[in-house]
Write a structure and sequence with these properties.
alpha/beta; 7-stranded parallel sheet; 9 helices; globular
């Protein structure tokens, strides 16, 4: 029996993941702040799919609530998938943003996600199987597009996912980072601009976004960008990132900086000939 735990599951992308995974045969643990919404969704899904759907009302910015979700991930041996979907966004420039609100966004988008990964990954490794889906954003690689702290928080999710892929691939644990672009969810309105105000040509439905993300998971993608039409663009981008990273290790500053290296200046003459 396989169970998926989904955060931010009461609406939007999380609710669609719940629907799609239940139809794929997963039992569910739905996590979100609104117990009323969760119970209504759980009742519908249980009726439509005959799957077991548990509700775990929790505010992931509250340490006690977060700890309860962490404990469930560690202790429930039926959980084989974690969908880290809970998050919030901001659109305002840095100088117009409230730093306390930015801190709360970091707590949810980064700290809570990280703690849930730390709860799930060791358990999955011990069982030799599991999947972690981290919902990031295209602004993680296009930080200039929206609020810088929001973009930075999603860049963190992408970087963490790359690291997890590197560490856990040979341990039976699958990692997928999903990078949605503009999606028709309440996160936009909560950030101060309803998605209805965006050009329709750039806004994807959450249903299409999740269906594409799950198709990417089925195809073995490590990073899925549902809105990127030419997948080879990402392949080239990723290849360039990996290639340049191999050139970082060097004890000498690059010639363009016209610096006489202290290491060279201090080295014996026979070592610098």
């Amino acid at each position: 029996m396989s169970t998926a735990l989904i955060t931010g599951a009461s609406r939007g992308i999380g609710a669609v993941y719940a629907d799609r995974l239940a139809k794929r045969g997963y039992d569910l643990i739905l996590v979100a702040r609104s117990e009323t919404r969760l119970k209504a969704l759980a009742a519908n899904l249980a009726r439509e799919t005959a799957r077991t759907v548990d509700v775990l009302a929790a505010n992931l910015n509250d340490k006690a609530d977060l700890a309860r979700v962490e404990a469930r991930l560690r202790q429930d041996r039926n959980i084989t998938m974690l969908v880290n979907n809970a998050g919030t966004a901001a659109l305002t420039p840095l100088v117009d943003s409230d730093v306390d609100e930015m801190e709360a966004m970091i707590d949810l988008n980064i700290t809570a996600l990280t703690r849930l990964v730390y709860a799930a990954a060791p358990a999955f490794v011990a069982r030799g199987a599991g999947t972690i889906i981290n919902i990031a954003s295209v602004v993680g690689i296009a930080a200039e597009a929206l609020n810088g702290v929001y973009g930075a928080s999603k860049a963190y999710v992408i970087a963490l996912s790359h690291s997890l892929q590197h560490e856990l691939a040979d341990k039976g644990v699958r990692i997928q980072a999903v990078l949605p672009a503009a999606t028709a969810t309440e996160i936009w309105e909560n950030a101060g601009r309803p998605w209805q105000d965006l050009p329709p040509s750039i806004v994807m439905t959450p249903q299409d976004m999740v269906d594409a993300a799950l198709a990417g998971l089925d195809q073995g993608e490590l990073v899925t960008l549902p809105s990127l039409q030419d997948g080879e663009e990402w392949t080239r981008f990723e290849a360039a990132r990996r290639a340049i990273s191999k050139q970082f290790g060097n004890s000498q500053p690059a010639p363009r900086y016209r610096i006489i290296s202290t290491a060279r200046a201090a080295a014996p003459a026979d070592l610098i000939r």
